[in-house]
Amino acid sequence: MRGLEWNRLYKTYSKKKYDPKQVASAVQRLYGDAYVKNRKGVFEYILGGEVDTKFLDVRMFDEATKRSVYESQTLEAQNKGESNCPLCALGHDANKDKIWSISDMDADHVAAWSKGGATDISNCQMLCKTHNRAKGNR
Are residues 19 and 83 in the same domain? Predict the structure, then answer.
């Protein structure tokens, strides 16, 4: 691919052995993913162990998806008398039954994107910002 820093990539990643078939398969999978906005970062993402999604400029959940998930999650939580953050609802602290505003929540991939989780409504949940930031790539 033109425009890549092949020399830098070689110097950074040449010590590790790669299976060409696995690399080609991963490139094909990522090129076919509509949520990968930076195709030039695909090789570095793969060579780096498919960990750092910043190379892909992955699109996050759109506002309509966030609002839809927030509304259904909040309605369900209110009916159960628990927090609309699923992780707060599991706890034994003051936030166990807190209803967070949408501005105090982040959209989260239930199955991490880096581990194959899709960026669609079926894989979205709203978490309070504290829990979402503590969760990381799990």
Answer: no
The reply to whether 38 and 77 lie within a common domain is no
Same domain assignment for residues 47 and 67: no
104-138, pLDDT tens digit by residue?
999 999 988 777 788 889 999 999 999 988 876 66
**Predicted TM-score (pTM) above 0.90:** no
Tell me how far apart the alpha carbons of residues 130 and 11 are, in angstroms, rounded to a whole number: 38
> Which residues are paired to 55 by β-bridges?
none
Which one-letter amino acid corresponds to residue 14? S
List all residues 6 or more positions away from 26 whose beta carbon is below 8 Å from its beta carbon: 42, 46, 50
Give the C-alpha separation, 98 to 35, whole Å.
33
